[in-house]
Design a protein that fits this description.
The complex is a heterodimer. Chain A is about 10% helix and about 30% strand. By secondary structure, chain A is mainly beta. Chain A has a five-stranded antiparallel beta sheet with strand order 2-3-10-9-6. A three-stranded antiparallel beta sheet of chain A has the order 5-4-7, with no helix packed on it. Chain A starts with 19 loop residues before the first strand and ends in a 29-residue tail after the last helix. The chains are: A mainly beta, B mainly beta.
Chain lengths: ~200, ~210
């Protein structure tokens, strides 16, 4: 005897969802949370704003790239503070790994960040800003991401909120270590709107 | 934001080891699957146009350029494209297979992100596979469905990803061992033999099957 579980009699038996495709040149899609990953892709046109992954090493910053521009496949480890130039107006730290792909293409470069893959993660993120003069952490804010199909979009909205607070308060942007004031930064969003000029008010 | 005042002083390797999995010194570790923390990563080279002949030197796990990818859903078998510079996500629970690459339907509990990249310099086209590291109750299933009517013929399951290749080959050999496994109980169709994703494991008969489906 094999239990078939509960089967609704008035609806078809639910089946697994077939695959979906995320084209790297689809710049309109923004972040996409679907299944076990939240995925972002971006296209950097030749000569234009480049999406570039930076990671923090103590109070220093390093770009995850080769000088000759060849492709990179990299793990952003859980607990590593990172940002993507041209996309994020803050630094992020997740409680799970993320995978970064950066590759040349005929129009410039394509980039992909896939966050997740493990059950219930990412469950928490730290949004922060880094003093560009001395590398000091300025205003770390922990955000619970939660679960559900819209959890990551809610997290992005919350990150926008704490960014707005950061931008509106010069005291938050003042470095306690060196005294320099971080300029107001990008309000990031899920639609990949272009980065505003540093210091431009929102 | 200009961080030039706080850029690292030396090469990136001094701050983080093994930071690029495409690196020549690392990439071979990904020709099967490598656990990299929360995820498992595979890098497959498309090293030739067609399936290697039996006895011909080839990477243990590689892909021929001539291949198709399929998934099995409620409406039957669907061919799914592999478009360069895109991320195909095969959802957990979906039976899927790659023609000439592995001779069974793979069913697992993790989404698989599959990224085809075109040639780059001297590097041939590549397929990148990223999926969550199986843990807990997660399993891999190796299944055969009748190619005519999709009746399930045979299936084996493994719940230890560390033994993926051994379990996979055991399943292939168990399916191939009894000709009755390959005969559909519903329509009577004689189905081809299975074969491993590790082509170096092929018997002559399995290599012949690799050419077929």
């Amino acid at each position: 005897m094999v239990s078939k579980g509960f089967i609704q009699t008035d609806k078809p038996i639910p089946g697994p969802e077939l695959s979906f495709v995320r084209m790297f040149n689809d710049s309109e899609a923004g972040w996409q949370q679907r299944g076990q990953y939240s995925i972002w892709t971006g296209e950097s046109k030749e000569g234009g704003q480049r999406f570039r992954l930076l990671e923090r090493f103590g109070n220093r910053v390093g770009a995850i790239e080769h000088e000759d521009g060849r492709s990179v496949l990299h793990k952003v480890s859980a607990g590593t503070s990172f940002t993507i130039e041209g996309l994020l107006g803050f630094w992020l730290k997740f409680d799970c790994d993320a995978m970064w792909l950066d590759t040349p293409c005929p129009s410039g470069r394509y980039s992909l960040l896939a966050v997740g893959g493990t059950g219930g993660k990412p469950g928490q993120a730290v949004v922060d800003w880094v003093c560009p003069k001395c590398g000091e952490s300025l205003d770390p804010q922990t955000i619970s991401i939660g679960s559900g199909p819209r959890a990551f979009k809610r997290f992005l909205s919350e990150a926008e909120g704490v960014t707005a607070t950061f931008n509106s308060d010069a005291d938050l942007r003042a470095c306690r270590n060196c005294g320099s004031v971080h300029p107001a930064t990008t309000i990031t969003n899920a639609r990949n709107e272009p980065e505003r000029l540093h210091g431009e008010r929102n | 934001m200009d961080y030039s005042n706080i850029y690292i002083d030396g090469p990136l390797d001094e701050y983080v080891a093994d930071w690029d999995y495409f690196d020549d010194a690392l990439v071979k570790q990904f020709f099967t699957f490598r656990d990299v923390g929360d995820n498992v990563v595979g890098i497959r080279m498309i090293e030739r146009e067609k399936v290697a002949e039996y006895g011909q030197t080839a990477q243990p796990v590689s892909l021929p350029a001539v291949r198709k990818n399929y998934e099995l859903g409620q409406n039957g078998v669907v061919e799914v494209p592999r478009i360069p510079f895109s991320a195909h996500v095969t959802r957990a629970g979906t039976p899927h297979r790659t023609q000439h690459a592995f001779g069974y339907w793979h069913i697992n509990d993790k989404d698989e992100i599959i990224i085809p990249l075109p040639p780059e310099g001297d590097t041939p086209p590549r397929i990148i596979i990223i999926m969550g590291k199986p843990a807990g109750d997660g399993s891999d299933r190796f299944a055969w469905y009748c190619e005519k009517c999709l009746t399930l013929l045979f299936m084996r399951e493994s719940d230890d990803f560390n033994k993926f290749w051994a379990a996979e080959l055991d399943a292939v050999r168990a399916y191939n061992a009894d000709p009755q496994h390959q005969i559909c109980p519903s329509c009577g169709h004689q189905n081809p033999l299975g074969y491993s994703g590790m082509q170096s494991s092929d018997s002559p008969e399995e290599r012949a099957a690799r050419f077929v489906w």
